[in-house]
């Protein structure tokens, strides 16, 4: 893309923003310029025919009028010149055909070009989102980003599909029609074009008032959506606490405000069209009266007066749509702004100085005087530890202590602000991020499975894996027998919310996926209370198998896990306050000992001090 990305998006306003959006849009339209140019050319052709039609139709009236006048006056040899009338009718048929064909060509080519460009924009956005750094989502809601790919592209697509043609047609209509009117009669044209400033004044008057009402309508709509989401999200709780009436009352209240806001906004904007029609009728009346005088004094043909009246209606059409078009254009630019700003977001840099071979990595992890904070505030002041290859490290600490943050840094979702993290002595900042992440598998409590078969969900861990490897990974993860009990076995379809299998089973499947990847280092977040004892044992067993021979980090909740660990890191307020084996830490009688004796779960306590 050749758009200048150096300027700050917040600095762009007004025309600069419009220019930026159009330039960016052109980059997506350029590959289809042939179809685009042809489509737009046909809009011009259709509008020329549209402007010529009234004059040709008027010629027929003029001819009939003069023939009729001659017959009535008893002029010798007077008759209706059917040859001329049929000639004009033939010309009109040709004009109608040209107009229809050009409109068809426009519809086919413009639709194809725009839909191809929209498809490219969606692909580009999807690619972009995958390259965004994790920190981008700290201050951008997922829903908002999702809305950019779906709603904003849709808004842009609809606006371009309808508005591009209509705006261009309106501009051309003004140019051609006004040109024709001045060509026919200057004074009458001056009266007729009064319709433009008068209509603009009326539109402006109503648009400025209705815009505020539309804003209120959109805000209330947002509130209504929020209420509905809340009601469905808490569906079970509402029933459990018997609060259906309360929820319904709340919904009725917002819905009623929505009704009032929508009525006011729609009413205000619906006044525009009748007011413009009134102006049009007044202008037509003035043109008709003045035009008759010109016809009587012979300076205007009757057919041309008829053409004038048609022209006024032709101008009226785009004028009465001006507010609708302008709001569509505005929302298209708003959508483009969001889309292209997202495309300009800084990407995560992938390049690394050191090439790593996953099969050669031993898996020694060192945190060397690591300093880190998500924002200006420092969370980790000086973190130091070393995980030996193939050993198990348990991380314990109260909620919000920084356990997940340690792992976020190891995976380079965020970069350290001081010190270094090393794998086999190599600073991870010198590694290519993709290659680095290739070394890890992640088993989290918030399991992620996608809509698809169980087989595909496990196979996702290593796409080159054979079927027998997938099955043996499932066996190692203790999930094979469970899969066999399902209808269709490995072909059983997991639904969109993965709600047709249990939480523990989901976690076993993610362990199978992690085993299939065969990583050097594994990060596990132990399941807490959401599973029963039998499943808990299966999970523990599966976790031990996946950890075997690999460097593993476990955010530990269970005493048994911690006891077995080769190294325990006690995290508090971001820093590692104690480290050692279970026995060493108990002997210290410090924070770990307090945590250990305070309950069964070693993570998610309240802060220690
Ligand atoms: N993306 C983020 N942006 C800003 N602050 C964050 C972010 N993620 C975590 N934090 C903050 O950093 C601190 C450590 O969070 P972290 O998630 O690492 O704790 P944790 O020990 O894993 O907690 P838990 O056991 O509850 O999951 C917390 O104060 C948290 O609010």
From TrEMBL:
The chain crosses the membrane at residues 36-56, 84-110, 167-185, 191-207, 267-296. The keyword ATP-binding applies. Residues 365-598 form the ABC transporter domain. It holds the Pfam family ABC_tran. It is a multi-pass membrane protein. It is found in: Cell membrane. InterPro entries: AAA+_ATPase, ABC1_TM_dom, ABC1_TM_sf, ABC_transporter-like_ATP-bd, ABC_transporter-like_CS, P-loop_NTPase, Type_1_exporter. Signal peptide: none annotated. GO terms for molecular function: ATP binding. It comes from the Bacteria. Coiled coil: none annotated. SUPFAM superfamilies: ABC transporter transmembrane region, P-loop containing nucleoside triphosphate hydrolases. Gene3D superfamilies: ABC transporter type 1, transmembrane domain, P-loop containing nucleotide triphosphate hydrolases. This is ABC transporter ATP-binding protein. It comes from Coprococcus intestinihominis.
